[in-house]
Amino acid sequence: MNAVVNKLTWNEVGKIGFVDALCLAALYLLTALAHLISFPLYYLDPMRLALLLGFVFTLRKGNAYLLAVTLPLFAFVTTGMPAAPKLFLIMIELAANVALLSILWKKAKLNVVLAVFLSIVVSKLLYYGLKYAFIAFGWMSSGLVSTALWIQAVVAVALTAVCILLFKWRKVNR
């Protein structure tokens, strides 16, 4: 841990902290907005959006893992949602998204479009596999799919497009 911290300059630490604060603030504001309007904003997968934005703007895998854990916790503390079993599923899903994106993009040198999209899809498949197990063991009583799969597919494509545009705008290379 010390080696990682020592490699960061104070400017980088400030930038990462600023990006993380923006991600948390955006999530908090979206949660508040969701209570004011009738549209279920969770359809837009705001935690994954914040996670991916945090990754694109900092390019720090460790920071993205921190967001993967803290974003669901922050939502739980501020709104009581998601419920405990789903909270852990979302944390695992978001952490898997980070790991897969890092592996596919940086290690496997996959095209960034495919890396982002596949990391979303595979982490979502992991989520549903674990959710199925949670339901089978009686740890959850909800249905397996609560958001229509076609909506999730559209959102996955949209999130991929947003990430690609930001990668291009930032002129990010591996």
Can you characterise this structure?
It is a single chain. By secondary structure, the protein is mostly helical. The protein contains 7 helices and no strands. The protein has helices at 2-7, 10-36, 46-58, 61-79, 84-107, 112-136, 149-170.
* Strand percent estimate: under 5%
Shape: globular
Q: Write down the overall mean pLDDT.
A: 84
The beta-strand count equals 0
Q: How is the biggest beta sheet arranged?
A: none
The portion of residues assigned to helices is over 70%
Radius of gyration: 16 Å
**Count, helices:** 7
Secondary structure class reads mainly alpha
Terminal Cα separation, in Å? Answer: 23 Å
- Unreliable parts: none
> What's the helix-strand series?
HHHHHHH
Q: Which tags fit this structure?
A:
174 residues; mainly alpha; 7 helices; 78% helix
What topology emerges from the helices and strands here?
Blueprint: H1 2-7, H2 10-36, H3 46-58, H4 61-79, H5 84-107, H6 112-136, H7 149-170
Helix pairs in contact: 2-3, 2-4, 3-4, 3-7, 4-5, 5-6, 6-7
Provide a quick synopsis of the model.
By secondary structure, the protein is mostly helical. It has helices at 2-7, 10-36, 46-58, 61-79, 84-107, 112-136, 149-170.
